[in-house]
């Protein structure tokens, strides 16, 4: 019986030793034992290589603006573990986590004695999430992000009202497959019979695979760039502006605060989902509410300004596609700045390729590591970089202090910190505390 939140976290994180075990049998067993809390939750299921979190954030903010209660399940977390299970963007409480863990734990111990074996960390937190939203705090809508892939992902146990596939690229190839077609087939595994699907996938091979799955499932499919069209787009103040034409409506001059062409696509996909649901009488939302929610949407750790002097931007670009989006956004919004990059990544990522691409726009590159079992060392990353202006430190705090000191009062310089989202969460917290301390000194 858990009484302390810290014990719950230690128990959940202790399941990491079970690794990643794709498959739904353990989830089916656990949820059956718990009385199937996952049934009858109006769910929008979101898969994709990149853009899942941002797309969910856009939908969340629009729905909340319309006064709906919206549950969300996302990963990884940036500030607190609890934010993975949130209501209207607010993480559930430590006490709720304790109560959920106490309810789930006996079944975890029971299944460990069967041939199915022990559930993974992700399976346990997913079970807790379904229990929370299905039994204790049922939302009007649940925005459900897959953890890995789709077909065999722990979340793929539900019958959604709509499926969304953001983008498809090369990530987790050791599990999902080595070709775009194989990866697309895994993501398309979330498509259910006669449940509509909307996607921003652009790769023709991936589109073909998704279309075939949708046809087999007799599911309507809407592609960004075909049934859903972004007409003009342009920079707008510190964000973006675009016009979207769906199968039913035209939304002129939509404004978003998150920057980058990839964010225009994420936002367009989110608006298309909301527009479809309005037309199908699944929700009521005025255009003003839609616009206000869209503009107010943010997502932690995605092209986020965390320090003003010098300007420091963090971005969790942890794979090839994420790096390309970051490069496009920097080129689009900061064409005349000297960019200094601090990078850290996990060993199992193709970090050499990411470093090579970042080097094309960097005035200097700096490397570090962080406390995580799969983190690459600073020297490994440094050694993979061909740029002349480079440095490394095994202490990310030391490197942060060095960069902030070196580029303070240098208006033409921009510090960009990118790589693993686990790393970004450390940096974000560090900058938040630093800013609070500086504000306290000013008040004194």
Which secondary structure elements does this structure contain, and how are they paired or packed?
Layout: H1 5-13, H2 25-33, E1 43-47, H3 52-65, E2 70-73, E3 85-87, E4 90-91, H4 94-111, H5 121-136, E5 141-145, E6 162-165, H6 173-176, H7 180-187, E7 197-199, H8 204-216, E8 221-223, E9 229-236, E10 239-245, E11 250-256, H9 261-279, H10 287-296, E12 304-308, E13 311-315, H11 320-333, E14 338-344, H12 351-359, E15 362-367, H13 378-383, E16 390-392, H14 396-407, E17 413-419, H15 421-443
Parallel strand pairs: 1-5, 1-6, 2-5, 6-7, 7-8, 13-17, 14-15, 14-17, 15-16
Antiparallel strand pairs: 2-3, 3-4, 9-10, 10-11, 12-13
Helix pairs in contact: 2-4, 2-5, 3-9, 3-10, 4-5, 7-8, 11-12
């Amino acid at each position: 019986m858990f009484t302390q939140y810290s014990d719950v976290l230690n128990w959940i994180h202790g399941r990491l030793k079970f690794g990643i075990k794709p498959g739904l049998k353990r989830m089916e067993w656990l949820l059956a034992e718990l009385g199937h809390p996952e049934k009858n939750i109006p769910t929008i299921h979101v898969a994709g290589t990149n853009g899942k979190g941002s797309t969910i954030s856009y939908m969340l903010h629009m729905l909340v603006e319309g006064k709906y209660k919206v549950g969300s399940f996302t990963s990884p977390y940036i500030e607190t573990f609890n934010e993975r299970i949130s209501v209207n963007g607010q993480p559930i409480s430590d006490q709720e986590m304790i109560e959920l863990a106490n309810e789930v734990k006996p079944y975890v111990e029971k299944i460990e004695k069967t041939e199915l074996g022990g559930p993974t960390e992700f399976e346990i937190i997913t079970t807790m999430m379904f229990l929370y939203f299905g039994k204790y705090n049922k939302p009007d809508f649940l925005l459900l992000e897959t953890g890995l892939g789709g077909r065999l992902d722990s979340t793929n146990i539900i019958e959604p009202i709509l499926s969304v596939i953001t983008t498809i690229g090369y990530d987790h190839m050791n599990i999902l497959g080595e070709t775009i077609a194989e990866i697309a087939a895994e993501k398309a595994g979330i498509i259910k019979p006669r449940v509509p699907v909307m996607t921003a996938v652009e790769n023709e091979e991936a589109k073909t695979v998704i279309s075939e799955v949708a046809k087999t499932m007799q599911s309507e499919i809407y592609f960004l760039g075909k049934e859903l069209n972004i007409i003009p787009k342009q920079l707008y103040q510190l964000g973006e502006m675009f016009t979207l034409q769906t199968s039913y409506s035209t939304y002129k001059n939509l404004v978003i605060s998150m920057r980058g062409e990839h964010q225009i696509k994420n936002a367009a996909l989110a608006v298309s989902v909301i527009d479809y649901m309005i037309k199908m009488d699944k929700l009521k939302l005025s255009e003003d509410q839609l616009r206000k929610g869209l503009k107010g949407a943010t997502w932690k750790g995605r092209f986020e300004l965390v320090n003003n002097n010098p300007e420091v931007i963090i971005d969790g670009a942890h794979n090839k596609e994420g790096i390309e989006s970051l490069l496009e956004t920097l080129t689009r919004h900061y064409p005349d700045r000297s960019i200094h990059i601090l990078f850290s990544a996990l060993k199992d990522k193709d970090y050499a390729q990411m470093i090579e691409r970042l080097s094309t726009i960097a005035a200097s590159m700096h490397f570090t590591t962080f406390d995580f079992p799969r983190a690459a060392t600073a020297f490994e990353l440094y050694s993979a970089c061909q740029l002349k202006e480079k440095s490394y430190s095994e202490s990310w705090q030391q490197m942060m202090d060095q960069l902030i000191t070196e580029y303070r009062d240098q208006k033409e310089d921009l510090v960009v910190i990118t790589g693993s989202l686990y790393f970004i969460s450390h940096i974000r917290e560090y900058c938040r505390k630093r800013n609070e301390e500086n504000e306290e000194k000013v008040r004194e």
